[in-house]
Amino acid sequence: MSARLSAAFAKGRPALVTFVTGGDPTPDATPAILDALVAGGADVIELGMPFTDPMADGPAIQAANLRALAAGTKTATIFAIAKAFRARHPDVPLVLMGYANPMIARGPEWFAAQCQDAGVDGIICVDIPSEEDSEIGPALRAAGVDFIRLATPTTDTARLPAVLNGSSGFLYYVSVAGVTGKQQAAVDSIKDAMDRIKSATDIPVVVGFGVRTPDQAAAFAAHADGVVVGSALVDLVATHGADAAEPVRALTAALADAVHGAKATA
Amino acid sequence: MNAPLAPNSLRNLPDENGHFGQFGGRYVAETLMPLILDLEREYKAAKADPAFKAEFEDLLEHYVGRPSPLYFAPRLTEHWGGAQIWFKREELNHTGAHKINNCIGQILLAIRMGKTKIIAETGAGQHGVATATVCARFGLSCTIFMGATDVARQQPNVFRMKLLGAEVVPVTSGAATLKDAMNEALRHWVANVHDTFYIIGTAAGPHPYPELVRDFQSVIGREARAQMLARTGRLPDMLIAPVGGGSNAIGLFHPFLDDADVAMVGIEAGGHGVDTNAHAASLTGGKPGILHGNKTYLLQDEDGQITEAHSISAGLDYPGIGPEHSWLHEIGRVKYLPVNDDEAVEAFQLCCSLEGIIPALESAHALAALPKLAPQMDKDKIIIVNLSGRGDKDIFTIADKLGVEL
Ligand SMILES: Cc1ncc(COP(=O)(O)O)c(C=O)c1O
């Protein structure tokens, strides 16, 4: 597991994981937004790779994907943004999140090598379940890039080991059966799921989907190793465009306070 | 009919992981994965259950109106002056296309699985109408996702679906056509897996959909094979079918795949021409990639972004193709040819005037390949064209193309 990711989850308190779409609203605006996430206190940065057909995303992130593509964001742009981020922030873990087709378009080895070269710590791929691991998993592992899998409310106890096998970095627990956006899971269901998952693995487990406010983030963080916030930040980018960095920093700071202060249940 | 297949048969894929060679598979979000595995188990059980088969066949006979005729088209044959041209008349089915065969099979599966809500995507509205029809017949709630562009250009089918009790949800993302409708249906499904069954309308999507859609549609080829043997005492020399996602084509082709002397041609939508950006010929103009749960040939750019398809035929206007066709293309068992919008419109008119049959624009693509194939063949050769649907739904598009105001 990447040393940067291990360190991010070894601070004795839950981690804040933040998501924005790369190239939204433009490739030029993204670096300042990423810096704002770091300045606000995010522990892990997820950089979304835009895709024409974001099937697992709700309206906010769908629109962000299309804005980024319309602004000319290419795969090369994403790696340039990642590489420059790594130069500015040598210790902050950076994870790419996206869909399979752009990741395999030039072959998984090419993609894994680019990740390695740009200092990307891990990959989250929405549409490569463990059954299709061979599509990209071996290439990522050979390049020392973590393959971060997703577990969901429909991942039952029998299936969980298959999902965990080959996962590294952290496990992303999707709190609701649904797409990214506003739907919110009950805290009780999170607690139950975390108990189940934590008893099956030692890798950190973060909870995401539907977390928008510091209060919600704190409530989830009390049961997890980290909380992911995406759509709420992407909404700020949609509203403020090229001037989004400051509002993004302010929301991130409020979220970080809430998450870092949440008492983790052992 | 259920005799074991030879080990070298071309008819025993997909493998147990849903792959046809490098194609197919299950590229879905984790939320859907358990459901897809359930569906696979349930489909295996249904296949082995004589009661399921009996109910499917009974509905095909008495509700759909099968078998569909195999018809010798004398004037079209004479017109092209080569091989005999025969039509498999899927356009005579209830709801006017082959789509209903698959919908009957899938709704029986949905009921077996205890699902109470049905969703589907539709482009031209043919699959939407067929889905709304079986939902009405079995009393299940029905929601159809349809691109807003298609809602506007296919008003009669939108109204048909509503008459049948379906809710039609216009999808405004992307180019607001079939691909976007499929994205939205998948999003809805992810959020409603507990009670919802997704009736996919073509032989694509995550395993086991390409397999089960093919199996339900294979009634086309099984009938055609038996009908041809009964009428002429021999097998046809060539099969031609239009290919959108590929369900009518694989339905016709599959029962003949091991008949080495039967040539097969799938017709892709060439739109304004495969050398332009405006076509839907994913095998001719695309490369392998992952979308909508399967690995298959896709129209895409060098970054793997999916490019918009174009076809005058809404049912072919999709940037992908079912994975079994990608495999049959790569091994060379089936040839795939593109046909342009204009050629399809010409073939449409010719079929109307020579055979008294108004074909669907999708089917007209298959008819448009005849001048390239039939005249070179001897008069004792036999071609079967899959007349996958009737053209009532397309008269507005044709009128528009011909500059006629209705
Ligand atoms: C009449 C007809 N033929 C063909 C098609 C293409 O679909 P497929 O390739 O799955 O048969 C459609 C799709 O709407 C259709 O309505």
UniProtKB/TrEMBL annotation, chain A:
Keyword set includes Amino-acid biosynthesis: yes
Record-annotated active site: E46 (proton acceptor), D57 (proton acceptor)
Enzyme Commission designation: 4.2.1.20
Claim: Amino-acid biosynthesis is one of the keywords in the record: yes
Catalytic activity: (1S,2R)-1-C-(indol-3-yl)glycerol 3-phosphate + L-serine = D-glyceraldehyde 3-phosphate + L-tryptophan + H2O
GO MF terms, alphabetically ordered: tryptophan synthase activity
The protein's annotated pathway: Amino-acid biosynthesis; L-tryptophan biosynthesis; L-tryptophan from chorismate: step 5/5
Keywords: Amino-acid biosynthesis, Aromatic amino acid biosynthesis, Lyase, Tryptophan biosynthesis
InterPro entries: Aldolase_TIM, RibuloseP-bd_barrel, Trp_synthase_alpha_AS, Trp_synthase_suA
Taxonomic superkingdom: Bacteria
Gene3D superfamilies, A to Z: Aldolase class I (3.20.20.70)
Subunit (UniProt): Tetramer of two alpha and two beta chains.
Chain's role: The alpha subunit is responsible for the aldol cleavage of indoleglycerol phosphate to indole and glyceraldehyde 3-phosphate.
Family to which the UniProt record says this protein belongs: Belongs to the TrpA family.
PANTHER family, sorted: TRYPTOPHAN SYNTHASE ALPHA CHAIN, CHLOROPLASTIC, TRYPTOPHAN SYNTHASE, ALPHA CHAIN
Full protein name: Tryptophan synthase alpha chain
Organism: Novosphingobium ovatum
UniProtKB/TrEMBL annotation, chain B:
A molecular function GO annotation: tryptophan synthase activity
Keywords on record: Amino-acid biosynthesis, Aromatic amino acid biosynthesis, Lyase, Pyridoxal phosphate, Tryptophan biosynthesis
Cofactor: pyridoxal 5'-phosphate
Pathways per UniProt: Amino-acid biosynthesis; L-tryptophan biosynthesis; L-tryptophan from chorismate: step 5/5
EC code: 4.2.1.20
All residue ranges annotated as the Tryptophan synthase beta chain-like PALP domain in the record: 65-389
InterPro entries in UniProt: Trp_synth_b_CS (IPR006653), Trp_synth_beta (IPR006654), Trp_synth_beta/beta-like (IPR023026), TrpB-like_PALP (IPR001926), TrpB-like_PALP_sf (IPR036052)
Subunit structure: Tetramer of two alpha and two beta chains.
Family in the record: Belongs to the TrpB family.
Protein name listed in UniProt: Tryptophan synthase beta chain
Species, as recorded: Novosphingobium ovatum
